[in-house]
Design a protein that fits this description.
The chain is an alpha/beta fold. The chain contains nine helices and nine strands. Helix 4 packs across helix 6. The structure holds S-adenosylmethionine.
Length: 263
């Protein structure tokens, strides 16, 4: 591991070069807009899928703001190194505590909103977490790379570790976009039809019922009769029964939780 920080670091003009990028030419910014800050080695992959459809429109309308902070800018020496070999040996590289700390201080400062490191070791992301994050005024996300991030910086800043699931990706950027997508769609005004959020999977602790639309007969398969009966009470009961059936079949863990919450 290289121990001595490069002398060039002191001359690094972080403020000038690390200014968050204005990603969508955001003309508007609504009061109380949610601010998403992402510390990443790949700022060019943002907004990515978040720039499409409803979230893209909400970004342009100023309902949320996106700042990417290029971790490279805070690197050491002429080559702006951000990583080094793992203490104790072994494969791969680890993101340096000092480099990440500079980026966090710049990006997060004294913000009171959550500071999150996307990490397979973290608490699994779920709808309850998305709801919690959506009530904040913003979030700072760290997208990891290599073998991960030096533990000392995680401990020092009290960083919350969040996982997208029990699998390993090459970097945290996709995980950050997934977290933001699920969070931002819960913000007021982002999705036109708020009622559609209420019936979704997980909102009542159950998976969603099956959905159908036209044509009424497709390749000999028809829509369940009750859905075209016009009887709203029967439709609601059918949906509820199907949601319970699917949850029992597919997610015994969720079903057990549901039975505990609503005995
Ligand atoms: C190759 S992974 C590091 C995996 C790490 N060595 C481990 O075994 O836990 C590089 C980065 O991708 C991101 N990443 C990979 N899988 C992820 C997941 N399931 N959820 C969230 N972030 C993930 C994290 O930011 C991680 O630091």
């Amino acid at each position: 591991m290289s121990k001595t920080p490069s002398k060039s670091h002191g001359r690094l003009s972080i403020q000038a070069s690390a200014a968050p990028r204005d990603l969508m030419g955001q003309a508007k910014s609504v009061r109380g807009a949610f601010t998403a800050k992402i510390i990443t080695l790949f700022p060019e992959v943002f907004p990515g899928v978040l720039g499409a459809s409803l979230l893209g429109k909400a970004l342009q309308d100023g309902l949320w703001k996106l700042d990417t902070i290029d971790l490279r800018t805070f690197g050491e020496g002429k080559h702006r190194n951000v990583d080094d070999t793992p203490a104790g040996g072994g494969a791969g590289m680890v993101l340096r505590a000092d480099v990440m700390a500079r980026a966090i201080k710049f990006a997060h400062g004294r913000a009171r909103h959550p500071l999150v490191f996307m990490s397979p070791r973290g608490r699994p992301f779920d709808q309850a977490m998305a709801e919690r994050f959506s009530k904040e005024d913003g979030i700072t996300l760290i997208a990891g790379r290599f073998e991960g991030l030096d533990q000392r910086v995680i401990d020092h800043f009290g960083i919350e570790e969040v996982s997208l699931g029990d699998f390993v990706m090459t970097g945290g950027e996709i995980a950050a976009q997934a977290l933001l997508d699920a969070t931002l769609r819960l913000r007021p005004g982002v999705i036109g039809n708020a009622a559609s959020l209420e019936e979704e999977s997980f909102s009542a602790g159950l998976l969603e019922h099956p959905q159908y639309t036209r044509p009424a007969d497709w390749e000999g398969q028809t829509i369940p009769e009750v859905l075209t009966s016009g009887d709203h009470g029967k439709v609601a009961k059918w949906r509820r029964d199907e949601a319970e059936r699917l949850t029992q079949e597919r997610r015994p863990d969720l079903w057990a939780q549901f039975k505990r919450d609503f005995p």
